[in-house]
User: Fold this.
Amino acid sequence: MISIWLIFSDKDQQSLRERINDLSQLYSGPKFLPHITLYGSLEIEIKRLVVITDRCFSKTKKFTVHAAGIGQTDNIWKTIFINITTDSQLMELYEFLTTELGQFQNYSFNPHISLIYRKMPVEKRILIAQEINFAPHYEITGAALVETSVDVDNWRILKRCNFR
Assistant:
């Protein structure tokens, strides 16, 4: 499967990665790159996807997303996360991809930055979430096509695109 991720500035990437690594070490979760999944779980030929995403991102400029609080769920892919406000820039990118990729996979966009992937009791998630500090905004500087699977250790970036 292939997912389309939004990638952060080096500064934001570093601070988020430190937080993810700390939580992963404390609670025995996998380490992963910070990202916002713009579109996920695609079964599509990579060459075709590159053409579509090149069109989508060709004129995209760097932009800022805004944090809307910490969330937690029993879904392993959203154990503890930073909610991101859905704005016009995010929706424009998502809607373009939905038009082009909806035939391959319906994807419900719920922008967030996962901080840990780990099954844990709700009480523990709530306690951890209450202790997390986060920045009010994050700079998006690019996108990546990422081969994903259930095993996070096997995730790999297939192509990266830097925004202007």
Summary: The chain has a mean pLDDT of 96. The chain has four helices and seven strands. The CA atoms of residues 126 and 163 lie 36 Å apart. Helices lie at 10-27, 46-57, 88-101, 122-130.
